Structure formats: structure tokens, C-alpha cells
Amino acid sequence: MVSMIWSVNLQLTGFRAFECMSMTMLMAAVVQNLFYRGDCKAVIQWTMLYVTVDIIFSMTRALSYTTNVMTLLQTSQMMATTFFYVALFQSPKRWWNYLIVIMSIFSMSTVAYIGMALGSVSTFFGHKKYKVAVILVSLILGTVIAMIGPYNFIKGTVFFDKQSISIHETTGRDKIMEVALEALEEKPGGYGFFSGEPYLLYSKNLGAINGHNSLFSAAISLGVPGILLMLIFFLTMMKTVFSRHISPEYRASLIGCFCVSFLQSMGNPGIGSRVFGGWMPTMFATVLICGFYVYGKYYDEISETNDEE
Question: What are the coiled-coil residue ranges (predicted)?
Fold first, then answer.
């Protein structure tokens, strides 16, 4: 909101900043209320309900123009994939867990697949049976990569729908990066939260709604200070999600969730810009992680003490 002072469109910056703050406060209120009325398990169950309802509505909207099964399975590329590890590690599993896992696997999102691969480190913080499975899969995967070669493996998986492995095969994100770098040179203080993104991107005939990357969005909107703020944010979230204050029972799920949400913010419209695309799942994942941290650090020990008394 402070960037309204130097924004190229004061009203738009103010509205989008208010929109982000309002949605964040709503999410914080929801998570706080869930912890107040229940426990950690209830919060996770509600999260699964929220994701499932979002998937159902996404598929319903898609049914208005297609009945192609593969297209329908790709309608939740950001929401389902962000909470893939929450659905995978939650026990006991229900039908919605399998729905979220299936939607994630068939999302056909390169960004999500990279995030899910990165999120596999979370298995080392979870149940032993998952650790054994990851070690076996890693050994098999390592053998396959060694046999066919790293380039062929990546080309046939992550970049399976691209002509080659290149930044130029990122559906215009390389051009957006050029705009962000030019913006830093021309105006190190930025063009104003969100307003600068359509202002510059449309002038370059790119047609993108925003930077499709939290750091690009920050560079265009708030310049160098914006990039520093985003880096501090992600580093702080990384420290939070690995904290001992988060219950070991849920730490693996939330670590996986963070990894995917981080990649979503690096390759899709996520945190750092307006409410759109990956912003909702990424911000909810952020608030959820902070909720578990605050509960474990300040309230869980108090409730245990009261129970003992």
C-alpha cells in the first residue's frame, strides 16, 4: 500500500493491496478459528475439504466447455498440487485424498512437477515407511537416469511437451524476466504494487497478467526493496516450516506443501502480486504453516499443561 505514493496507477495499487491483505486476513481468521474449535487434525481435514471443493468447482466450470477427461484432470494445476503432500501423508485416507493425488499427478504442470520432486525431501521427516519407499524409488530413478542419460530423462519428463530444455521453452517467462531486469535498471524503486506489471507487460505486447514469478513481480512493483522483501519472506518461511515447534506428525506434510508452493511462486502468478492463479493456494499454505508454528510454539504446550493439571 505504501507504494501507492509512487505508483503509475494509485487507485489500482491501493485496490490490489487491499485485496491481498483482506484475503490474507480472512485465511488467518479461518485457520485461527479451526485451531480454536478443534486440533491439528481438524485443521488438516478442513484443508482437505477446502481443496476438494475448489477442485470440484474447477472441474464444474471446465465442464461448461469440454468433457475431455485429460482436460478436466488439468483444471487444478495449482491448488491440488500445492497440497499434494498433505493429501499423501494424511491418515486415514479418504476418497478426497486420492482425488487430490490423482489431480496432482495428471496436472501436466511442469512447475508443479518440479515442486513435487523437490517436496520429496519431506519424506525424510515423516513416517519410516515413506523413507524406505523414497530410498527405493531414488535408487531405481538413479539407475534409469544413468542408463538413458540426464538430458533424455529431463526432456522426457519435466520438458516432455517442449522442443528442448531451455529457458526459451518456458512459455514467455524469459521475456517477462527481461522486462523485470529492464524495470530494475530504469526504476530501482519500482512502478507500484501490481500496477507496474500490466503497465510494462502490455506495453511490450506480452499480454501476461503479471510477472509469473514472485521475484519478477517484486522487481517490477517495488524494485530492489521488493526483491529483498521476497527473499526475506521465503527464507523466513523455510526456517518456520523446518522448526521443531511444528508437530512431527504434520511437519513432513507442511514441508512438502512449502516446497510446491515455493515453486508455484517461482513459475506462476503467486505471492508478490495480485490475487490470481497460484496466489490462493500459495497464501493459504503459508498461513497454514504459520498457524501450525504459532500453535506449537505458544499454545500446544499450554494446553498440555492444563490437561496435566
Answer: none
HEC string of 209-262? Answer: CCCCCHHHHHHHHHHHHHHHHHHHHHHHHHHHHCCCCCCHHHHHHHHHHHHHHH
- Contact call for residues 9 and 192 (beta carbons, < 8 A): yes
Query: Between vectors from CA 242 to CA 77 and to CA 231, what angle results, nearest 5°?
Result: 70
* Strands (DSSP E) found in the chain: none
Distance in angstroms (rounded) separating the CA atoms of residues 209 and 186: 21
- Kindly state the DSSP code that residue 5 receives in the 8-state scheme: G
State the virtual CA torsion across 298, 301, 307, 309 in degrees, nearest 10. Answer: -100
CA 103 to chain CA mean position, Å: 15
